[in-house]
Design brief:
Energy transducer TonB, single chain, signal, elongated, 5-stranded antiparallel sheet, 3-stranded antiparallel sheet, TolA/TonB C-terminal domain, mainly beta
Length: 178
């Protein structure tokens, strides 16, 4: 079953988004399939005795800078979406433009994309974890952790949205979820 991966998800229930730092809630498995790992569309599927913990971003991860030469144009807000691949050690391995969608419109100036890519390539994370428990009761006791189970670092891809805007002539860049 294709599913969203957030804290406390089970294989039987598609989970919603709650409290995920900066990232849109789509995370896809990037490693080789394991008994619970990836389905045909490369999204992780968890067994009933497994849970997933999103990667934690480093507080020092810098936001992109608003391109200075575009400030005088007083452009309306622009959205740039990136797919960011994070490996089992928490390092960024891939940064690429995310597909166009309702939440990720087309048309931002290339300078905004370049600024977003430059910042994202410097980011660091504590890796995502697939938590494997002996049974579902152990999983339920863990409450958003791998306590009592085995922590398996997991490579993931996340979608980040960057909103570039000017407020009272001052540049602002917000990293927002989907």
């Amino acid at each position: 079953m294709t599913r969203w991966m957030t804290l406390g998800c089970t294989a039987a229930v598609a989970c919603g988004i709650a409290g995920i730092s900066h990232a849109q809630a789509v995370a896809t498995a990037s490693s080789a399939p394991t008994p619970a790992a990836a389905s045909q569309d490369n999204r992780m599927v968890l067994a009933d005795n497994e849970s997933f913990l999103m990667p934690l971003d480093d507080a020092k991860n810098a936001h992109p800078s608003y391109p200075q030469h575009l400030l005088g144009q007083n452009l309306p807000p622009r959205i740039v979406c990136l797919r960011v691949g994070i490996d089992e050690k928490g390092a960024v391995t891939v940064v690429a433009r995310a597909p166009v969608s309702e939440m990720c419109p087309k048309g931002a100036e290339p300078e905004f994309l370049a600024a977003s890519e430059t910042a994202a390539r410097t980011w660091k994370f504590d890796p995502a974890l697939r938590c494997v428990f002996r049974n579902t009761k152990d999983k339920e006791r863990a409450v958003a952790s791998c306590d009592g189970g085995k922590s398996v670092p997991q490579a993931v891809t996340l979608v980040y949205r960057f909103r570039f805007e000017q407020t009272d002539g001052k540049p602002q860049v917000h990293v927002i979820g989907g």
